[in-house]
């Protein structure tokens, strides 16, 4: 038993009997243990039934784990030793105050925790509905589980059970044997948030599975989970890149608010830096028919943007340029847009991007930044969760407070002059070259 306790490091202890009759030896031995030996008083007592005069025991403990050193030690002294009272007082003084016990979690708290812990199930159910195109099928007309199974080539029983789960989330509703879309379910249609559901339930779902690894090590969770940094992965997986860009466009219902928040009518040329497929720039060009646009992004993205702009008949007013914004951006614009770009990068890369914009801008130009700032007053905001999302799915990505954007801009040679709110906790930040107007 002793060998087993030692192997498992369980309550290894020694007992020492003090047999000297010289006065104060026990006290000196106690001082040796609590001083140089680094042990802590750990209780004790007097047993009148041990030996002719009874026996005093003084307990000591240590956090040491060195091989051969006890976790606990006992001093055994014949008789009722007067050191016992002092030892017990020292024991109480050395013990941390006991916290009040937490009240047991109520049913409501337990239910709420279960709802949060099963959030992954919700994500995957919504992603499955998006992959199968349930929103598009039910938008055309209500259908039974069997009919939807035929339309989507799915298993009828399991699809029915998933639809029942989606009904509990108010995504669909049941009318007799048929399913119909709710207003919430309408957002899962193509052109709405269908690609967002596919993205969050797809590669972003996999990347968040490595969040704990990322928190422990500081390494990027996306790269750990999928083997490549985010943008490198998208470059090598064009189908996932299409879903990604579709999600970026679909998740931008607030784009229409930008031309209302910022007056572009006096801008001759608006340069959209890393503008993706041109979704925001199209809103601006339609709102201000007299201005021209320049969409600047990586060559492959720029080619796709050209097709989208052509569909809207805007190519005659918009030049599409391929390039790398970490090296340069087109010169001579009156307004430069950075929409959801800076949150992808750490401060060092942000300063490089901002410096490239500053070099390309005339002194009279404006810089318009669209981001989701983190509130500092405790106001609930999507930015809190998105800040973790940016850490997981970008190298150095993060959301920032207004003041953090102000400092970045000041370092890059800009003055932040205006902040205006948009929907979904987004905001438009306007900056001008330092010393300008």
Question: What does the largest sheet look like?
Answer: 7 strands, mixed
Q: Radius of gyration over alpha carbons?
A: 34 Å
Report the CATH C-level class of the largest domain.
Alpha Beta
Which structural class do the helices and strands define?
alpha/beta
Number of strands: 14
Q: What is the mean predicted local confidence, pLDDT? A: 89
Number of domains: 4
CATH homologous superfamily classification of the largest domain? Vaccinia Virus protein VP39
Give the strand order, joined by hyphens, for the main sheet: 10-9-8-11-12-14-13
Q: Note the beta-strand portion.
A: 15-25%
Helix content: 40-55%
CATH hierarchy: architecture of the largest domain: 3-Layer(aba) Sandwich
**CATH topology group of the largest domain:** Rossmann fold
> How does the overall form come out from the CA principal axes?
elongated
User: How far is it from the N-terminal to the C-terminal residue, by CA?
Assistant: 82 Å
Unreliable spans are: none
Helix count, per DSSP?
Answer: 20
Domain O-methyltransferase C-terminal: 208-414
Keywords: Methyltransferase, S-adenosyl-L-methionine, Transferase
InterPro entries: COMT-like, COMT_C, COMT_dimerisation, SAM-dependent_MTases_sf, WH-like_DNA-bd_sf, WH_DNA-bd_sf
GO biological process, one term: methylation
